[in-house]
Design goal:
By secondary structure, the chain is mostly beta strands. It contains 5 helices and 34 strands. The longest helix has 9 residues.
């Protein structure tokens, strides 16, 4: 794997001298005239842990600390398969029709039951055993009878039960008939079953008197519509549903990293939560990473079919949960991350009952779904071979050290930077250059080969127990002091190079950054000179 450029925020803290607070040299506090003096001036002190430092730099919801204190960025998105078509119920709209003629001069009694069956499962590979309705509407409409008929019509559905548990039955007098709409909230259907069908039976019982010489038809319109199941039981067959969705993440765009590192690993987790009473095969058809200006790359997985267990029925339902993990060992995720993508598109397909065991009883609440949370974790676990950077810090020399009377009295200034490094990172300060307001070089404070800030040494788990002390001394002689004053020095430019601990010795040495990694620094100045008599 080639090194790629990611941004690491904590490295610039090793060269934080620009944050020093100003100390002005006060002539009134200097020794008597015509006497040599040496004055020590503390300029700044800094202390921080990586946890507090990174939290200040990154207040996103994606930064987190693991149980062991390591620092990760975790991006996640929830994908939901609603599965509404899994238990779709057919609407019923039917006209009961019995042609009838009475050629006699006397009225005729008609006592007859008309039986009709209506298949309710829209998918013939699904079997419905029972459904507890949340809502629905049963309608009885448009009664047709020979004029002058009397009596009653009773409609019964032996599979439909009222909230009190009684078989549904509706009777109307043909003389006082009016259209009826019956609310089916909290009704229950216990289906009759046949080959490839789950059905209800409509029994239309006629108990009427038809007048002499009547000709026509006996009938009524019947309907069951707007059926919404609260929970359905049965066997739902091989129902398939596909979802396509995407998420964006800014792991490589939001100033969290600054230089060349090689990730030890990246983790992709698919956390499934199934509240449906059916097992599934969840197939990751396509997981495509992309970034503007680069060709998309597909995540290649050792196994892209995830076996999801059924939920357990109860009050409440107990969902099943499974986690499927991918990393460099069973996918090509590290090759993909080399392109520094910022978007992933996911296409996944769920297929119910992959075992094809029709003896199993499935269930589905109308609010149940199959959920898959896709998480991508980027731990701060890496190696860096050639960390290089250039920083420009504001340091106005004349504001810092006062007017010419002060600088004339100064013979030299020794700056001391004491670093107590608790980070597993070697830094070489290759050069420090003083520049004027136009960024022209005035002089070098440190020239090649530079100064070394030693790395802390991590244990086998990556933890650092002891900081390593390094001292960087910069001496400014009289000529430099005058030059900085006369040329109005405004900036210090620092060039650094470094590597993570052990990276130059082994391709397999990676460091981890923990929230308790600390860095302590003090910056002080020793000023020597002589103040002559007036």
């Amino acid at each position: 794997m080639n090194l790629r450029y990611l941004k690491i925020p904590f490295l610039f803290a090793l060269i934080i001298m620009g944050a020093c607070k100003e100390e002005t040299i006060d002539l009134d506090k200097m020794p008597d005239p015509d006497r040599d003096y040496s004055l020590s001036v503390p300029l700044a002190q800094a202390y921080f842990t990586m946890g507090s430092f990174i939290e200040k730099l990154d207040d996103s919801d994606y930064l987190s600390f693991e149980d062991d204190g390591s620092i990760v960025h975790r991006f996640y998105e929830t994908f939901e398969l609603e599965l509404e078509g899994m238990v779709a119920l057919n609407n019923v709209n039917y006209s009961v029709n019995l042609p009838f003629a009475n050629p006699t001069p006397e009225s005729v009694a008609v006592n007859q039951t008309i039986i009709d069956k209506y298949i309710m499962n829209e998918r013939l590979d699904a079997r419905f055993d029972s459904v507890f309705l949340e809502s629905g509407l049963l309608s009885v409409d448009n009664l047709n009878l020979p004029s002058g008929s009397t009596g009653n019509i009773t409609i019964e559905i032996p599979e439909l039960f009222t909230p009190s548990g009684e078989v549904f039955s509706y009777t109307t007098s043909v003389n006082n008939f009016s259209a009826e709409n019956i609310n089916l909230d909290d009704y229950v259907i216990r289906f009759s079953t046949g080959i490839d069908s789950s059905y209800i039976t409509l029994n239309t019982n006629l108990d009427i008197e038809v007048p002499a010489y009547a000709v026509g038809a006996i009938g009524v319109d019947f309907g069951m519509n707007e059926l919404i199941a609260e929970v359905t039981f049965g066997y739902f067959g091989n129902y398939a549903e596909t979802i396509v969705d995407s998420m964006e993440f800014d792991a490589f765009d939001s100033n969290q990293f600054f230089d060349a590192i090689q990730m030890a690993n990246v983790y992709v987790d698919v956390n499934t939560i199934n509240s449906v009473g059916s097992s599934f095969n969840l197939q990751l058809d396509e997981v495509e990473f992309s970034k503007s200006g680069t060709d998309p790359k597909l995540l290649e997985l050792g196994d892209n079919i995830l076996g999801i267990e059924a939920a357990s029925f109860g009050f409440p339902v107990s969902p099943s949960q499974q986690i499927f993990s991918y990393d460099k060992d069973n996918s090509n995720i590290l090759d993909i991350i080399e392109d520094l993508p910022n978007k992933v598109k996911v296409q996944m397909t769920a297929v119910s009952n992959p075992e094809n065991d029709e003896s199993k009883v499935n269930f589905l609440h109308h609010y149940n779904h199959l959920q898959a949370d896709l998480g991508i974790t980027f731990p701060l676990h890496f190696r860096a071979i050639d960390y290089q950077r250039v920083d420009t810090l504001d340091l106005d020399f004349n504001d810092e050290f006062g007017d010419s009377d002060v600088t004339d009295a100064i013979e030299n200034i020794n700056l001391y930077l004491d670093v107590y490094n608790g980070l597993p990172f070697d830094i070489v300060v290759e050069s420090i250059t003083a520049q004027d307001a136009n960024y022209n070089n005035i002089d070098y404070l440190i020239a090649s080969p530079g100064e070394h800030i030693a790395s802390a040494v991590p244990d086998e788990d990556g933890h650092v127990s002891e900081s390593v002390h390094s001292e960087v001394q910069i001496t400014l002689d009289k000529d430099q002091i005058d030059k900085f004053r006369d040329q109005n020095m405004k900036y210090i430019v620092i060039t650094t190079q470094g590597a993570s601990y052990g990276a130059s010795d082994s391709d397999n040495t990676y460091i981890k950054i923990f929230k308790d990694n600390k860095l302590e620094m003090t910056l002080s100045a020793e000023i020597k000179g002589n103040i002559p008599n007036d």
